[in-house]
Predict the 3D structure of the following.
Amino acid sequence: MATKRKVSNLLALAVLSYLSQRSMHPYELSRTLRDNGDDRSIKFNHGSLYMVVQQLEKAGYVTAQETNREGQRPERTVYALTDAGRQELRDWLRDLLGEPEQEYPSFVAALSLIGALPPSQAVPLLRHRLQRLAERAAQTRRQIETVLAQGVPELFLIEEQYRLAVDEAESTYVTSLIDRITDPQTGWGPMWAQFHGETFPPQAPPAQAPPDPERQQT
Amino acid sequence: MATKRKVSNLLALAVLSYLSQRSMHPYELSRTLRDNGDDRSIKFNHGSLYMVVQQLEKAGYVTAQETNREGQRPERTVYALTDAGRQELRDWLRDLLGEPEQEYPSFVAALSLIGALPPSQAVPLLRHRLQRLAERAAQTRRQIETVLAQGVPELFLIEEQYRLAVDEAESTYVTSLIDRITDPQTGWGPMWAQFHGETFPPQAPPAQAPPDPERQQT
DNA sequence: GGGGTCATGTAATAGGTTACATGATTCT
DNA sequence: AGAATCATGTAACCTATTACATGACCCC
């Protein structure tokens, strides 16, 4: 159902949205998206943008309006939204807002396979993640502050706030997970470690620094 | 940094993980992944699996061990994990657990562009999403219960619990968002509606049923 | 014993990312 | 005036998804 759209890349949604305000040429779109920080919410890369615009044109959602050339630069084709495009924009947005999608964040995959590491490694990694999450949250908060200070209405920052909320929930969860692994009475550590031929908590404290790709298991 | 791996599809991580327990042929992998419900955590599809196995072989992480044929069925090639593969599995997992990735869920994109809809449409959609989230959560809880009842250790369900926690945070956030839009004193509704040439709350109550792709804005 | 569905894999297509190319502008 | 960076786009390459193919097994 969700893949039935003629153009599925979310970048296209942003393009439709900007074109609904005024016609632009691809480079201008590119520039505007970056300047507005949309690249924090939508995966963006230069090459894909041109592709997406082509796809939109083929699908009849946008149409080349004029090609003008300025000096000796390459021609810039200005695209305008069509009625079908306006319709698609609304319909797509409604769909995304109203219906939660099944998504596949990499942390979920990692959690589902965490058993492949011994708990002596998993726990420090989770602690490290907590730190990183905290750093990221702090940065997002500063980001929000500065943008608000520039007078942008809060309505345009809700996606950042949402991210904050989700990251916070993740932190809470990871904290509780660490507890359930390490609790001296009921923790999963020992059973889990045994499966790897280890003990938990480990006798010799394991290395603390987390991502050390070279370290070998003994 | 994150795209530096020779094989980046997360399905490959699951393959490495299963092969670390015993050698299998692709179809067996496919079957095992489905049976263990890994397809809820990792995007899975038949075709991709074969591709991923090829990629892993090319990268030297797995190696064809034997090809046996049973009756007149096509040959099945059994793959085994190599040392490099075992190393990659550990390294990759460590990375995923320890470092939060920047990801792009579609709801974030939708939130960032929500202004393109008038609040009279956005609010019912958000309410509808809340319902769906609740349904999904209920189903996940049942799922967890039945699997636990089959004696599977809780450790193998943490990714479901994580999903629950995140969904719950999303629900909370969406609820608060609705409030901030509709609050009679300080809500963003009126300002936002005005931008669309409407009023908020709307005079004639807008249709309630959310995803109705055919309805036109008046 | 013929019609579905399972088992197993390959090939064609579409989608997305990276790399490349080239004139213009700006800086020193 | 040469170096660096911006502006703008195309092409080549990977990855992923869909569609196709075919023998085996199971049902009535």
About this structure: The CA atoms of residues 61 and 85 of chain B lie 4 Å apart. Chain B has a mean pLDDT of 90. The first helix of chain B runs from residue 10 to 19.
